[in-house]
Amino acid sequence: MKIITKGWLAALLITTCLGLSSPLLAQQVAPININTADAALLEELPGIGPSRAEAIIQERETNGEFTSADDLTRVSGIGNATVEGLKDQIEF
What we know:
This protein is 53% helix and 4% strand.
């Protein structure tokens, strides 16, 4: 009888902990402004490593600010698939 009670208590404890942690795991992250972010911040975006981050900065310094996500295709190595993955995580 005690073994069954301990098992149910452990399951209840685990379920409660998971239920309380879910809102913390689902927190929204503020979008990154492509026109003001430094290389380190840009690298936090999926698919953007050090070389692409530097390319984004170089492109905006050379040809002006980005006005839409689609403008990122001006950067070598960033295509439509990457842009689609970034749309919810960037701002201008």
